[in-house]
Write a structure and sequence with these properties.
two-stranded antiparallel ribbon, 2 strands
C-alpha cells in the first residue's frame, strides 16, 4: 500500500456588507505533504494565515507562543532556543546580572512581586 498525506484547507467568507465590498469568496489550499518536513507544514500554515489577513509579525509571534509558553518544559524551550541561537530571559538573569537592561529589570520586579 502506498502512503500519502494530502491536505486541503478551505477558507470561505460571506463577503462585505457595503456596495463596494467583494461578494462571497473562497480560497482553497491543497498540498501533497507526504515527504514534507515540519518546516514545510509551517510554511503552508503561514500562507493560510497570510491569506486570512494576518501580518508577518503576528504570525511570527504565534510561532514563538507555540514554542515558548508556560505549558512547555523549560528543558524543551532551552533546546529550541539553543537551536536558533536564542536565550531565555531566565537564563539571561543568571548568566549576566546586567541590571541596566530594562527587560531584565522588569522580569526581576515581576519575580519579586
Amino acid at each position: 500500500m502506498e502512503y500519502f498525506t494530502k491536505i486541503k484547507i478551505e477558507i470561505s467568507d460571506s463577503g462585505g456588507e457595503t456596495l463596494d465590498s467583494l461578494g462571497p469568496s473562497s480560497t482553497i489550499y491543497e498540498a501533497e505533504m507526504s515527504d514534507c518536513s515540519v518546516h514545510a507544514w509551517f510554511t503552508l500554515f503561514e500562507r493560510v494565515l497570510r491569506s486570512a489577513g494576518f501580518d508577518e509579525q503576528v504570525i511570527a509571534a504565534g510561532g514563538c507562543q507555540l514554542a515558548f509558553n508556560e505549558f512547555r518544559s523549560q528543558e524543551l524551550m532551552r533546546k529550541v532556543a539553543h537551536e536558533y541561537d536564542l536565550k531565555l530571559l531566565e537564563d539571561s538573569l543568571t548568566d549576566d546580572n546586567d541590571s541596566s537592561r530594562p527587560e531584565l529589570q522588569q522580569h526581576q520586579e515581576d519575580e519579586q512581586s
